[in-house]
Amino acid sequence: MGEAQEVQLCIRAQEANEANSQGHTNDSNQPTSRQTRKLTFWIRIGVYAFFVLSGQTVATLLGRLYYEKGGKSKWMGTLVQLVGFPVLLPYYFISAKRYKTKTNDNTTIQSKPPSFLVLASIYLVLGLILATDCYLYSVGLLYLPVSTYSLICASQLAFNAFFSFFLNSQKFTPYIINSLVLLTISSVLLVFQSDSEDTSQVSKGKYAIGFVCTIGASAGYGLVLSLTQFFMNRVLKKQTFSVIMDVIVFQSLVASLATLVGLFASSEWASLGKEMNEYELGKVSYVMNLTWTAISWQVFSIGVVGLILEVSSLFSNVISVLGLPIVPVLAVFFFHEKMDGIKAMAMVLAIWGFISYAYQNYLDSYSTRKENPIRNSESRASPQREKVING
User: Fold this and answer.
1) CA 337/CA 22 separation, integer angstroms
2) CA 5 from chain center: how many Å?
3) What residue ranges are annotated as transmembrane (predicted)?
4) What is the mean pLDDT of residues 19-34?
5) N or C: which end of the chain has fewer CB within 10 A?
6) Tens-digit pLDDT profile for residues 233-243
């Protein structure tokens, strides 16, 4: 009996040493894998942010160029914001081939996907709101200088935060509230812009219509982002690039069809041929302008939905607002617009508002890093405690 007990003790000691050695190797590998995941995460954030900033800037400038050089159709200005989604369709053929190669080797258990009726309802709601939103943006860009238009769009962050509070349980901190107040004030300042700016080509009535439509579009955009985050988290429940593509393609399809109905119902389609012939830069430039505007908006959409998927709708909107001051600066060179005191003040407030929100994001990230080591150590210590107690 004594020898048997000694053998059992030796076996237990050897098993304990092996478990400890495996625990040490896992602990040594965990920081490396954690750093790799963190680096990959920030690379994705950087790529999506670049898509948002570049796509938004190029599309806005091209949209204003369309109206500046003879374009008049509000529905065409709306359609080019939506109709570029077919350039994304080759992704489905590539992903289908990859899926086939993976399923030959691996079998994965997936949660039950939403029904077709639920998905159709989601994309219908998002598409119709998006179509209305893009039309309001088109009216605003027609009647407002591109610098004023871009600065008013900064108010979309306040609307996004308001809707996210109810739909996605967005928390408000002093820095976020400060950010929203500053961005709202920067937009309100531009109400007085019509008195200080040369508006010989646009009457005060049309200027007011453009201002109201842009504010309405900003509110609609904030609602679309909040609803997109809500549906992706609560209904779709997937965090893959395929989800991003599905949301963009299907809501753009619905919005494009709704816009086409408006284009033909308004009879603006009949004047498009004349508009192209009278375009100041020529027919080829007319077609290229609309084509690249459509592509730029799709690049922007990929970045926006990608940031929603990785972080939140409010963070995605903050990156979008960050790019808005770029447009007024470029408008001074491309469209010879004036950068007066009110615009400069609004731009400073918009940048200050972004910095305030970005600092809150930094504080959240810092507090998360401080909490994780404690949680990880507790989770690693609990199995060892069980072994000691059972041993």
Assistant:
1) 66
2) 65
3) 41-63, 75-94, 115-143, 149-168, 175-192, 207-231, 243-266, 286-309, 314-335, 341-359
4) 57
5) N
6) 888 877 677 88
Residue 356 near residue 363 (C-beta atoms within 8 A): no
Of 73-77, 349-353, 370-374, the range with the lowest mean pLDDT is 370-374
Tokens 């350039």, residue located? 87
Tokens of 283: 């027919």
Taking a C-beta distance cutoff of 8 angstroms, is the pair 304, 251 a contact?
no
Instruction: Using alpha carbons, list the distances in angstroms from residue 312 to 229, 306, 371.
Output: 7, 9, 21
Provide the 10 A C-beta neighbour count for residue 8. Answer: 10
- Quote the strand ranges of 75-141, DSSP E: none
Q: What is the pLDDT of residues 118-170, one digit of tens each?
A: 999 999 999 999 999 999 999 999 998 887 888 788 778 778 888 888 887 77
Contact 190, 211 (CB under 8 A): yes
Assigned token pair, 28: 């040594």
- Tell me the DSSP string of 58-89: HHHHHHHHHHHTT---HHHHHHTTTTTGGGGT
User: Global pTM?
Assistant: 0.74
Q: At what angle do helices 156-167 and 313-323 cross, to 10 degrees?
A: 180
